[in-house]
Each structure stands twice: as C-alpha cells, then as structure tokens.
Write a structure and sequence with these properties.
Structural class: mainly alpha
Strand content: under 5%
Radius of gyration: 22 Å
Number of helices: 3
Helix content: over 70%
Shape: elongated
Number of strands: 0
Largest sheet: none
Amino acid sequence: MEVRHVFQHPDILKKGHARKRGRRRKNVRRSTTDEETVRDQLKTKRALLFEEFLKNPSKTQLTIEIRLIDDRIGELTRRLTVRSEVRAGLAFGSGLPSLSF
C-alpha cells in the first residue's frame, strides 16, 4: 500500500483546485444571504399569521403554524450568529479575555 502526503494527492495538484475553493467561499456567502432572506420571509409570514390569529382566536391551527415558524426562525438566527462569530474569531473561546498572573 502506497502512502501519500496530503499535498501529493492528485486532486490537490490539479490547476483548478484553488478556483474550486474560491467558489466554495462564494457559496457560503450566498447561503448566508439566502438564510437571511428566508428568515425575513418567515418573520413576515409569522406576523401575518399572528394578526389573523388575533382576529380569529378560535383558529387554533394558526398557533401551531406560528410555533413551527418561530422554531425555524430561531434555528436560522442561531446559524447566522455562529457564522458571524466564526468570521469574527469569537468562536471557540478566542474572544474570551486572557488571564494574566
């Protein structure tokens, strides 16, 4: 069995490898923008459903839909917060103050 160093891997030695990595970064930015758009759309839909529920409180199905939308908004907000912290270098304790003796 032949052992290769990671930099000797044929896929890494290809000319277009760096370009593929650049595309990936653009896709991450795009997915963040997409998630922000989806979150904003969900907030709008939630507001409309809540207004309808206030007018007709007997429509209890609306409360379930609102709850599901709230959960989805919370998950998207958490993801976006984690991504922004990672970009800022605050994730994994690097943003904590250092202790000196």
